[in-house]
TrEMBL record:
Family, similarity comment: Belongs to the leprecan family.
InterPro entries reported in the protein's UniProt record: Leprecan_dom, Oxoglu/Fe-dep_dioxygenase_dom, P3H, Pro_4_hyd_alph, Pro_4_hyd_alph_FE2OG_OXY, TPR-like_helical_dom_sf
Organism field: Zosterops borbonicus
Domain of life: Eukaryota
Cofactor(s) the record lists: L-ascorbate; Fe cation
Pfam families reported for this sequence: 2OG-FeII_Oxy_3, TPR_leprecan
Key word Heme present: no
GO CC aspect terms: endoplasmic reticulum
Signal peptide boundaries: 1-28
GO biological process terms held by the UniProt record: collagen metabolic process
Name of the featured protein: procollagen-proline 3-dioxygenase
Keyword terms, alphabetized: Coiled coil, Dioxygenase, Endoplasmic reticulum, Glycoprotein, Iron, Metal-binding, Oxidoreductase, Repeat, Signal, TPR repeat, Vitamin C
Amino acid sequence: MAPGSRPGGALPLLLLLAVLAAAGGGCAAEGGPLEPFDALYASGVEAFYGGDFAGAARCLERALRSRRELRAARLRCRRLCRAQVRLAAPGPGPGGDLAFLGSVLRRAGCVRSCEEPRLGAVSRHRAAEEVRADFQRRVPYSYLQRAYIQLNKLEEAANAAHTFFMANPEHMEIQQDLENYKTTSGKVSLIDLEARQHMEDYSAGVRHYDKEEYELAIEFLERALKGYYSEDEDCQIMCEGPQRFEEHEHLDYKAGLYEAIADHYMQVLACKHDCVRELATRSGRISPIENFLPLHYDYLQFAYYRIGDYVKALECAKSYLLFHPDDEDVLENASYYEGLLEGTVDPATIKPRKEAKTLLRRHKLESHLLQVAAAGLGYAYTEPNYWNRYGARQDEHSVPSSISSEPEDGPRLSLTKKPMPKPDRELKEGGPLLYSDVKFVYNSQQLNGTQRVLLDNVISEEQCRELHRVASGIMLAGDGYRGKTSPHTPNERFEGATVLKALKYGYEGRVPLKSARLFYDISEKARRIVQSYFLLNSTLYFSYTHLVCRTALSGQQERRNDLSHPIHADNCLLDPEANECWKEPPAYTFRDYSALLYMNADFEGGEFIFTEMDAKTVTASIKPKCGRMISFSSGGENPHGVKAVTKGQRCAVALWFTLDPLYRELERIQADEVIAMLDQEHLGPSEMNINPKDEL
């Protein structure tokens, strides 16, 4: 999140940072015990807002380094004390537990005596939840980027911006900053300074696999597995740190010995059990890569087959089957590999990999203990689906040419694109447009995508002019964008208004009531068309309706290389680097369909574009004009944006729809009530008939 654009709820955090900065005494010279990262962060933020950018950069760099060193010191000490102080087994009879509890006390003493020389008192490094959340979201890199710009350190600024962006792909300002860095400095290769190596190796392995470079794919995927299991061990160790007693205030905590041990241990165990999710989740995300660990073995079993190493292929297939024993394709693959080895190696001697068996055995035992605790101790626990099989290998080819001559009983290697989670509805299109004057232009196929339609004559020239007149009387700069007049680009001004605002202005006589109602009526007409064309079996509700105009700012258009609205999807966070769209907050995950109804064409630029998931490859470009409407499903299948408006003003009615009545637009419900009241008072409904005139 860029400095200066923090949400309103961040004020308490800024106050907290100010207190920490005062307590920390600034970003002093290094020496002695490790300085707490939260105090260094606070000093860095204070220096940033005080205009001391060199001091801000120095403190923020140290804060990031301190946090890494804190984790490394804790890992080293806990690992050392695990080796030096073994936990003794409890003995029988009275006092039999003393040996075990004594070893627990000795290990605790070992950890403390190891940590204190470097870290100081444990309490110094207990950062507030808000501060930890900032580091998880990589917010310090946003401050660092701005500080580096002021210091003219463009390469460092570019890498800091990229690092922040990898955890915040929805952040519009950072997207634009990155494009500017690439243009002004020619820097294309950017470094993620917080990259997780096992993730990087996995992604590289998949890229080589897609190019059919199987030996390189094997090298990176094997390295990714090694890194994964090493990170898993670290994750397990880090879970042994302090935990929060969610159902108890610490000062009033009166549990007995075994209750206290159970309470703390079950939280530690839940943390350890969730390591498989943690290791599959990219920084800053909520949702993990589905089926992440098993996918390594799935890619590897086929890659080894392609280079002729059938022993390794069978080993990896059997490893994958530990997680999904009923996967018919991989069962057939394993059988096929066994046939290839017949007469040379006994397939029964080829076992699944030991580390996979060990992890899965431990994971099942953790699950059992957590469920026992939930039943017997009153914990609320639901076992997540850690190995969701929606995640499958993505192969761009249907059948590799080198296998196409294999017998029909050869390997079935799941050579299909990654299946998306099954939608809760069947995707259709081509239904009636309901209104005889509406003109069909292009369907999904002609627009090179899925669930897309382009229509003309949705409203008339006169209605466009009337809507434009009412817009000039009700729009407010920054409306719909949290007050930001230039939310997506500094080179354009954005103004907007809602349906309810238009009707209120009409009722008060500030704009013609007929014109205000026109906004309401045409948005309802658009909703009916979208619901009918996409053959939806349930009601489509308004999620948000917004009349918006964007105006090119004079004197700022020369050499523009940005977009009016960066590439995004409407119900998920587009992640071009991972070729994914994460359906999680802050995205509006409840949106199902979108539509844009254009009001004018007397401007330059401003074309609406669809792209591939890479946010670069344009698949369709649409020039707005009066009465033209583009509608599409709101998911990751339809990334889109708007090219720069370089002259004039571009106006449109933007509409988002949902199939879930729980997410109906509140202002729309209120607008419906206003319309009902107006009709009862006979205050002159619009001359526009929103009912279908002729069903086509």
